[in-house]
Design brief:
Length: 616
């Protein structure tokens, strides 16, 4: 049985997981227009973050892409405080054409891209604002690319005393100078090993191995901490390696003040280290330039697609967020769209595609994941991606539900002496929904029945009694209503633990202790323990749904034909239920079986690496 992976559908304000720690996702929540149709203001939704961010607006004659430097006009329009989830901004006349919003983590030095690492090749050093003392704590992730003698970091007095310095000594290993010179040990077997280095309270460890222990000292180094070289008047023992991040605390205990938090990044094409504590950007002092890693994450948190003057056509689908696990597998996708004046059906296709990817019929698997009610405002949805999926997934917002069949019928005509068996067994807490129309109300008949041989014990059955009205047999009781039906009129009938409703009006109220029906549910006839069928329903059948005691949809039956035979398709179990005798379709009631795809579809890769979001 397929389990719908929709996590939740949200209202106008939505919170999504941020793409990166630098900023927040932003999405259009609503557009306010004047009587003449012009845009007066737009409300943006943000993912809450502890730190303030800066909102910029770029506008140009056409969409200039996600590089803010490509736009003719870009303005800082707001500082977004930490914790903000929405913001309404007024439009002005000069903003026209394509408009794009950027949410940046910095102000004076906005960061373009977060990098996996920066690399020094023995010609660069980076000076930080941090001055170490004997009580300092440093944590860093560093990968030496050679095992030559080099200084990983250094902080000491101008007279070279009181050092807080980490070396790698060729052939000997790591050396931590803490107030005085240390000794080398624990050499690496080869270059290119990621090393998690911690120095605290006179101790130094590399990947959990203690390489130095000089506890009990306290001193001040006075000079700022320098990376990739020895701070000794002139720079020497420059290092060759890759830095993935560094943090420094003023005190070595846990609740000390975090004074330095360096992450590899690029700003305006320059590669360096961004200090998240004070918002400064550090580069090498020599001006040679650090080398950037090939991988990374764009820091600009912009709309998935350019925002045009009318904000796109109705029902445009945007992929607004993605979440990945520790193995970089896609686990969640945030979608945003407007259903419009009619209900829509959200489908997801996955697996292999043979032919045009824009046609759901060409995919090996295509599943309905949500029925989207009519709405003129934006619907935001978070979609869980099952672990067993691979390859590509593509979302479709369709004009109607799609089932794999030759022809999908709005309804079929059921004649006498026909019934359809299901495997579903109702309980007291079952809920059903059925749409039908009687051909003749002068005969007693049964829309559905689930009971054993004892017809007054543990039964869940709906009757229409000739010229009298409805009856609902519920556990040991038979509940009757004087409300009568009209021939050839379609009714929507709902039954649950509290009774029965017709077209939204409660006509029968019930109560019973917990019970389970003593027979499987069958449509269009009464029975005795799924034998001896009678009191057949005649008329038009549109659909039938049943929910179990935990409110899970257990049956969702629709009329169709497959291989030339009219039957019922169960959208939950993905199976066909064939009637006991032929059922006739009404030729005037054939539903459109074409795929009416709306303006945009989202296409995401679930491959472990290199995913892309494509919105057309």
């Amino acid at each position: 049985m397929y389990t719908r992976p929709v996590k939740h559908i949200m209202g106008a304000i939505a919170l999504f997981a941020a793409f990166a720690a630098w900023g927040r996702d932003i999405s259009i929540e609503s557009v306010n227009r004047s009587a003449g149709g012009g845009i007066e203001s737009v409300t943006l939704g943000f993912t809450a973050d502890e730190q303030p961010s800066v909102l910029y607006l770029a506008y140009d004659a056409a969409d200039m892409g996600t590089d803010r430097r490509s736009w003719s006009h870009i303005e800082k329009v707001a500082v977004v405080p930490g914790g903000t989830t929405s913001h309404t901004y007024e439009f002005v006349d000069k903003w026209n054409g394509a408009v794009r919003f950027f949410l940046l983590s910095g102000d004076e030095v906005p960061i373009d891209r977060r990098l996996d690492y920066v690399e020094a090749d023995g010609r660069q050093t980076v000076e930080t604002p941090f001055v170490a003392t004997g009580l300092a704590r440093i944590e860093m992730d560093y990968e030496p690319t050679t095992l030559d003698t080099a200084c990983v970091f250094s902080s000491r007095k101008p007279d070279t005393s009181g050092p807080y310095t980490l070396f790698y000594i060729s052939g000997s290993g790591w050396r931590f100078d803490y107030g005085d010179s240390g000794s080398a040990n624990s050499p690496l077997s080869e270059p290119g090993i990621d090393c998690h280095i911690v120095t605290s309270n006179g101790q130094a460890s590399v990947n959990g191995t203690l390489v130095a222990n000089y506890t009990g000292k306290n001193f001040s180094s006075e000079n700022p901490l320098t990376l990739f070289g020895l701070h000794d008047g002139s720079v020497k023992y420059e290092a060759k390696g890759r830095l993935r991040g560094l943090k420094a605390w003023s005190q070595h205990w846990v609740d000390g003040t975090l004074a330095l938090d360096l992450v590899p990044a690029s700003s305006n094409g320059v590669v360096g280290l961004y200090n998240r504590i004070d918002g400064t950007f550090l580069t090498d002092r020599e001006g040679v330039g650090l080398t950037a890693s090939s991988g990374g994450v764009d820091i600009l948190q912009d709309l998935t697609e350019a925002v045009t003057g009318n904000f796109g056509t109705e029902r445009k689908m945007l992929a607004t967020s993605t979440t990945r696990d520790e193995n970089n597998r896609l686990t969640e996708v945030g979608l945003s769209f407007t259903a419009g004046a009619y209900s829509r059906w959200l489908y997801v296709a996955h697996g292999n595609c043979a032919g045009d990817a824009g046609n759901p019929a060409n995919w090996s698997d295509c599943d309905e994941v949500a029925e989207i009610p009519e709405a003129t405002s934006t619907t935001n949805l978070v979609f869980n991606v099952p672990a067993e999926w691979s390859g590509q997934i593509r979302f479709f917002l369709l004009e109607h539900d799609v089932i794999p069949c030759d022809v999908r019928y709005e309804y079929v005509t059921v004649g006498a002496s026909k019934y359809v068996e299901t495997q579903f067994i109702p309980t007291r807490d079952t809920k059903t929904e059925m749409k039908l129309a009687f051909t003749d109300v002068s005969a007693s008949q049964t829309p559905f029945c689930a009971r054993g041989n004892n017809t007054s014990f543990n039964t869940y059955t709906m009757f229409y009694i000739a010229n009298t009205g409805w009856r609902f047999d519920f556990s040991p009781h038979q509940y009757s209503s004087s409300v009568k039906a009209e021939a050839n009129r379609a009714y929507l009938i709902v039954t649950d633990s509290s009774g029965m409703s017709v077209d939204g009006e409660r006509i029968i109220s019930t109560s019973a202790a917990q019970f389970t029906a003593l027979g499987r549910l069958a449509l269009f006839a009464a029975h005795y323990g799924n034998t001896s069928y009678g009191y057949y329903f005649t008329g038009r059948f549109y659909h039938f749904r049943a929910w179990d005691a935990q409110s899970n949809l257990a049956l969702d039956l629709l009329p169709c034909s497959v291989n030339g035979e009219v039957c019922l398709y169960d959208k939950v179990g993905k199976t066909y239920l064939h009637p006991s005798a032929a059922i006739s379709p009404d030729s005037a009631a054939v539903a459109d079986n074409g795929y009416a795809v709306t303006d945009s579809t989202g296409n995401l890769s679930i491959a472990p690496l290199g995913f892309a979001i494509i919105v057309r």
